[in-house]
Amino acid sequence: MTAQATLLSVNGTARAVTAPGETRLTSVLRDALGLTGTKVGCDAGDCGACTVLLDGVQVCACLVPLAQAEGRSVTTVEGLAATAMGAALQRAFLHHGAAQCGICTPGMLMAATELLAANPRPTEAEAMASLGGVLCRCTGYRKILEAVLAAHGFLEDGRPPIMPAAGCAVGSRMPRADGLAKVTGADRFGADAAPAGSLWLRAVRSPYPRARFAFGDWAPLLARHPGLIRVLTAADIPGRNGFGIYPDIKDQPVFCEREARYRGDCLCALVSDRATLDAIRFDELPITWEVLEPVTLDGAPGGEALHARWPDNVLTTGRVVSGDAEAALSASVHVAAIGIETSFVEHAYIEPEAGWARRIGQRVEVFACTQAPYMDLEEVAGVLGIPQAAVRIIPSACGGGFGGKLDVSIQPMLAVAAWLLDRPVRAVLPRSESMVSSTKRHPARITARAGCDATGRLTGFAFEGLYDTGAYASWGPTVAGRVPVHAMGPYRVPAVASRARAILTSNPPSGAFRGFGVPQAAIAQEALWDRLADSVGLDRLEFRALNALRAGDTTATGQVLEHSVGLVACLDALRPRWQALRAEAAAANARGGVRRHGVGIACMWYGIGNTGMSNPSTMRVTLGPDGLVFHNGAVDIGQGSTTVLLQIAADALGLPAGGFRLVLGDTDLTADAGKTSASRQTFVSGRAAAAAGKALRDAVLLRANAGPEAKLAWDGSELLVDGRPLALEAPLEGIGRFDPPTVPLDANGQGIPYATYGFAAQVAALSVDMELGTVHLRRIVAAHDVGRAINPTLVEGQIHGGIAQGIGLALMEEYLPGRTENLHDYLIPTVGDVPEIECILVEEREPLGPFGAKGIGEPALVPTAPAIFSAIRDATGATIMRIPALPHRVLDAIGR
Amino acid sequence: MTAYRRPTSLQEALALLAEAPRPPLLLAGGTDVYPARAAGEAWMQPSDRPLLDLSALPELAGIEERADHHRIGALVTWAALRDAALPCWFDALRQAAAQVGGAQVQNRGTLVGNLCNASPAADGVPALLALDAEVELAGRRGTRRLALRDFILGNRQTGRAPDEIATAVIVPKATPGARARFEKLGARAYLVISIVMVAVVVEATDGRIARARVAIGACSPVAQRLPALEAALTGLPVEAAAAIPQPEHLAPLSPIDDVRATAGYRRHTALVLLRRALSAPAEARAA
């Protein structure tokens, strides 16, 4: 059969496409027409990333057969700028910081375009209804709504955004330096590009949580599928068949050997052309199984060993002990206790793992979405058994990470395939495969007790956390190490005994997820304060203010906090809102009805950077024939480091931020900035960027023989120093490096785990339907001490996004292997689930930080869920102990 | 029949269906067909079922008002229903249409496709059950109608014969002034699969309920009408309706525990939502 060409109009141009009629329109646009601005997040209509307009109506292109588009008009993000409103909307998105990682942005833009075409000045409710089908995991939706509602105001003003002047970048709301590509669809994510002639790789994964297996004869499969070029198994790994975060724990195999340890564990990989791969069925594979009983958190401690190296299944124990907590609790006037259980939480970045690898001589290049290019480099070198210098990692635009793209996923197997076949090989994980195979937030079972004296001053705190770390170590040790330090929260507690254990099970590997176990701990800790406050008869905010850490206090690890302890300032800022919202809730409750209103509060602290370990960053700024170049190896996963670090470097140098060319992420072209995690890039890489900018400034001034106060400026492409052109005989460079000073923790958790901490408090106002158990958020007020807001718009964006993930953690997200492996059974917040958010930025300068700045990525999320549970308690009297608080659990808790 | 066909007349479609060596999957808006494919593909279970695309059949298009019923063609989307000017007894169905999926699903998904997919949580079923809707089925031997309650046989099972196409849903007219209401309970604002759904259609004469039709979804393999409750409501003043539903009225339901909720919660909230749905007309009058 010869397929007939299908004619359709795409962005106003007639196109003829020869493909089967049932081909998804996404595939037509991306693969046949090269319009990769339309993203694929799920292939199931669950995420809306592929939203395009079909005859002006928003549709998920993944659900439209090519034949149904025949003779019709398709508009994609690439066609948006051609209309006045489309271009205005793009400018509004840039101005309002509505794009973070950018993976949902094309879908959001197209959904909004349908609305704005009919109604240029919509209400918020109308905008929500239009955007309800597009999921965003970064922004918390609020800035997207702002941009859509304001788009009409950008119709007249076609000018590019105004960039801050020299020396004025820090503190400005300059638009994202990488934003334009995100609103035009030009950004290249992992699935958007690959070398010509790339083969495709498909991982074969275990459907069983625990099973022994054996491969039979592959010959029949290879004969049946002549296009199948290679089957890669453990035997094909040239180097070490193992990867893992810690240099001494490479326990996760690229390809399993004889035993699969979780549902999704990778057995082998098939490499061929795409059509061949798509036709191969799992039951054709020569695999025989011996299914074993999975080990769960109930049976794991002291049960059958899952790894010989950890005979009791205890991967790591973290501990902080100061004073005698038991004695303090016994002597306390008031004591409270709580036990909670949380669930696996999926990162649900809208971009599934994707990328390619190719061999160039004796080197290998890997292009993929990642949060940690240099860690990927080490893993790929180890797996291939080649020197690290022979590996180049080129990060793609990263469509969300949140910790989930810190571990390697497809990188090692792609590298192995490309290395052995000497051909480029690419892979894109389907949504369900991404969810099944990737790491998760640790489910935690926590018991905690706390005591205070008659005036409400805390006396002692005891915490025991059992964290299900799943099949492999991943970031389990990091979680077990970080939790006990943070478990008592940002409060003065004289006696502390906190312990967290990471337990190996047959579950998906639990790894890094925004907060590294601290959000789970904060839920328990903050519930205790509410109870103690009630016992003492203190207002719940005032109880926290009474006990809040202040500058000069000593923490449970023995660290004296000298500077930048802004919790009291956060609480002071919240107090009037707290009182007003409490009064509103009381008034609403007095009116009666089935809804009970409540207001909750929670605080948090968060250590910036690695726990008691070196985590340096190096940045470089050069001035030469190719202009002023910022070599920045920090991966921007949407949080904004590309922009923030540029602002810092620009002001340190004294030239406008708009005048830099950016070289980003590529390990051949940038130095190791460390991973994008632990809320460290603004603080650690920011200090390095400031030092690099300053070093280049010093070099320029030396060359110009100018004093430290000299003014730098551009005259076209010529650099002026105090008005005089600078003669450059050779390129100049400035290199900056920073490693936050810490002291490793001893056996009792004593030391200086972090150089600085973020502090925050959030208030949540909500109502609970007492008959249905449903929770309706009304408002969240978030006060965050960020040291210095380098870019307030981006800081707010982080707070909004963290709050949205906190809402998900609190109310709906529950990953159940085998059951919620897609984005319609696994629920993350939609645009309608995030209430109005007020951000209050508190700036208690951190002397170590660049221009006083600290991190914000994780602090944004930590207090949200506890504040929501506090508000549910306030509204109903019920304490939520099983999380997420799905409606039936809330109703259960109310009934207890 | 080859893997994919898109006929342009019902006759051609029925011929293709009759001659197909393997029963093809019928495709309209694609909002169920493609997700199912994706789920299979993720575990290397590609679908090799041929597709018969019904989207170009003129006989399946549009909403028509006839003497004693409305005919909703099988290609009518949720969005078309949501935005249509339809009599008041369609309000529950239109509320369901406005809450299914997100705008993209509403723009593509069809009501009849939702019936044919026969999910226990199908958003279109309770309202149509409460309207005593029938499904129009075309075959080469002619057209027949099947009451919706007889059409959906179980989870993902329907009474459509392999050589038939569901061409429309037929909705008998209710009395003018009938009040219809839909309540959907889910764990988030958009794109949510229902935990419980309630649809009621109440027809009243002089303030007394002449006929009440009540259906509950997502609480049994197939959404259920509640005949005992309907009987109990008949003849009562409209204002009294909300107090009537009692646990024993839920006897036809058989809810299960799943990832979204427990069986007990479903029973409880079904009753709560019923009472709310039945109180709505009175409240609306008061307002």
TrEMBL record, chain A:
Task: Determine if Endoplasmic reticulum is one of this entry's keywords.
Answer: no
| GO MF annotation: an example | oxidoreductase activity
Q: Does the keyword Electron transport apply?
A: no
> Cross-referenced InterPro entries, in alphabetical order?
2Fe-2S-bd, 2Fe-2S-bd_dom_sf, 2Fe-2S_ferredoxin-like_sf, 2Fe-2S_ferredoxin-type, 2Fe2S_fd_BS, Ald_Oxase/Xan_DH_a/b, Ald_Oxase/Xan_DH_a/b_sf, Ald_Oxase/xanthine_DH-like
Q: Which UniProt keywords apply?
A: Iron, Metal-binding, Oxidoreductase
Pfam families given in the database record: Fer2 (PF00111), Fer2_2 (PF01799), MoCoBD_1 (PF02738), MoCoBD_2 (PF20256)
Report the residue ranges that make up the 2Fe-2S ferredoxin-type domain in this protein: 4-80
Transmembrane spans: none
Identify the domain of life: Bacteria
Q: Which N-terminal stretch is annotated as signal sequence?
A: none
- CDD domains per the UniProt record, alphabetical: fer2 (cd00207)
* Family of the protein in this entry: Belongs to the xanthine dehydrogenase family.
| This protein's name | Molybdopterin-dependent oxidoreductase
Which organism was this protein described from? Roseicella aerolata
The record lists the lineage as:
Bacteria, Pseudomonadati, Pseudomonadota, Alphaproteobacteria, Acetobacterales
From TrEMBL, chain B:
Which molecular function GO terms apply here? FAD binding; oxidoreductase activity
Q: Which organism is it from?
A: Roseicella aerolata
The chain positions of domain FAD-binding PCMH-type read: 1-176
Name the keywords, alphabetized. Answer: FAD, Flavoprotein, Oxidoreductase
- Going by the entry's taxonomy, the superkingdom of the source organism is recorded as Bacteria
Q: Name one Pfam family in it.
A: CO_deh_flav_C
- Its protein name is FAD binding domain-containing protein
